[in-house]
Fold this sequence. Notes:
CATH superfamily of the largest domain: NAD(P)-binding Rossmann-like Domain
Shape: globular
Bound molecules: NADP nicotinamide-adenine-dinucleotide phosphate
Structural class: alpha/beta
Order of helices and strands: EHEHEHEHHHEHEHEEEEHEH
Amino acid sequence: MTATRIDGKAFAAKLRERVGEHALEFAKAAGRKPGLAVVLVGDDPASQVYVGSKGKATVAANMESFEHRLPDDTPEADLLALVEQLNEDERVDGILVQLPLPGHLDEQSIIASISPDKDVDGFHVINAGRLSVGQSGFVPCTPLGCMMLLTDRLGDLSGLEAVVLGRSNIVGKPMAQLLLDANATVTIAHSRTREVESVVKRADIVVAAVGRPEMIRKEWLKEGATVIDVGINRLPPEPGKEKGRLVGDVAFGEASEVAGAITPVPGGVGPMTIAVLLRNTLVAAHRNAGLDVPEGL
Ligand code: NAP
């Protein structure tokens, strides 16, 4: 069997287009564009790139982008004051504080200070709680993007065996919750799981969010499984090259011989994250303006 390649890049492009169209309609109805504020503290090069591309994607989706770049030594009180100001600002529908923060800042306190109704990253405990009891709130972008790819591929997930590898608050746990809500039978595996290979072998759906390059081999997979690879790992550079290759948590080539469908790295889950961030911002804008959230997002 050669697995179907799940094209997250193309899916994300279509989602961004739909969001952009709805954003124009929102602007007509509300008299303003949906707004996303992104806060970056410090000069971490990867974070600079992420924040830059989020800003560009926001503008391309017909939304207002508010970027706040603060120095590395920003006191916590100043950051909290900025978040408070953004919470109050009616032009701002979504607030994202780029993680990781410099060591002197307490991430949990900063996330807790964001209004849950503007927490488009879905990291606030109120939104984690809403997800866990089935209320509508905001779901973290990466797992929600994975879920969109899965339902697009498989339709109804009822009764399917799903194994999520990884239990982080931003990927593994919300992913498992979403799969459970979709009536899959869910197992969460982690670093203490015994015989992880045989656990994965049961799965119709495998979501790998571990951060270990190509850990999941073809022998781990059930024939025909749908594999969503969240991992982004850079291998050491080959001789003569400046940068190493990017690979996922799944050995893509060999896994494609067994899986029914699989996301590549790059070009699979990665592009979904920003697209879902824009989608969450559009949803926030509708809720904040008291308008009905458009269907089919
Ligand atoms: P994380 O917080 O480091 O969590 C990793 C999880 O993997 C932990 O729960 C850990 O278990 C588990 N784990 C580690 N080694 C394992 C092993 N040998 N067997 C089974 N489980 C193991 O990472 P994360 O933030 O969830 O991210 C995971 C990966 O996804 C990373 O590669 C990250 O770069 C990528 N990522 C991509 C996107 C995107 O595409 N946009 C977004 C977010 C993350 P314990 O809990 O027991 O330690």
